[in-house]
YecA family protein
Amino acid sequence: MLAAVQQHIDLVVGQPGLHLRQAMDHADAVAVAAHQRLQSGGVAERQAGQQKMPGGGGRARGQSGQRRQREVMRDGSFHGDRAYRDVDVTMPRTGPPGPPGLPALTFASPMPGSGLRSRPFRHRSIPDPQPMNNAATSPVPPDAAALAALQAFLTDLPAGAMTLERLDGFLSALNCAASPPGPSVWLAQVWGESAEAQVSFENEAQARAIAGTLMKLHESIGAALERGGRGGASHRPRLALRPDGLPGGNDWASGFVLGMQIAPEGWQPLLADDEAGQALVPIMMLHHEHDEDEALRPPPIDAAMRAELPEVLADVLLQLHQQLAPARRELQRSERQALTFRRSAPKVGRNDPCPCGSGRKYKACCALQAG
């Protein structure tokens, strides 16, 4: 069943005969190395890559007044970056639950008949993009042509493979999680259960290109979220446009929820805090907007609110990433400690009594055997 996958993992990794598990482990190692490069590059970027605003304050200068270009995919159906501003968005207080196994959320304003008062979920302005001067450690997002090729490849797979919009939401969740899984876990979700055993590439060049685009997209989303936490331009979700020209967002939200479901332990630090969990409200609204169960559907999202979805989701995503940052740092610290050699006993000095009990100095006793 895994023959087709094995064949093309060999091509992507470049080591013919590599077993499937070895290939997945290799992909995990590549992802860990990229994450470590990103973490080590952040300090240099802050020290060398940012210009100070006049009068101090320490924030990097943005490209003031410059509107970011719309990212145009091959079919022109994706809603890209725009100027950002403050906007009040009213969200439901009860209704859409979280993914299976995760606590229910307390929301911001009432569902019909709840008798609760409304209060706005306010999303704040996000700064303009900051110049990136440390290209060696700052992953560059895939260009429009690479994304179009990835979209076409996923479209040609059997039913169950992700759309590009869902993939963006999925990878965004993985980059936010306190303990994200490696590629050996999440790649199967990208292809889809029915497509996993039927993934097929035209040639080695296409295999390498698709794998490279996936990893670039994953790493660049993480880099953008880290940059956003330092006051730079954060990640802007790629949302497909509906026939009426407004962004949809449902597929993106479903991808995000799937990313939470495959790594639920990485979301417990946030969901244990009712106030912090408020940030998930817009995502859960979109995820359940067309749910077959009427009890799970939120109130209708009007056109004005939907037009602001890219900005709202960008701000929510950055907020989630920052809220889980302490848990991610703690995990990284634990992993570093696990890799650090620890002595099982205190170091014995050369002139100390030998621990064997002979009465001689260590250098004249067991140290001779150790040397």
Summary: The radius of gyration is 25 Å.
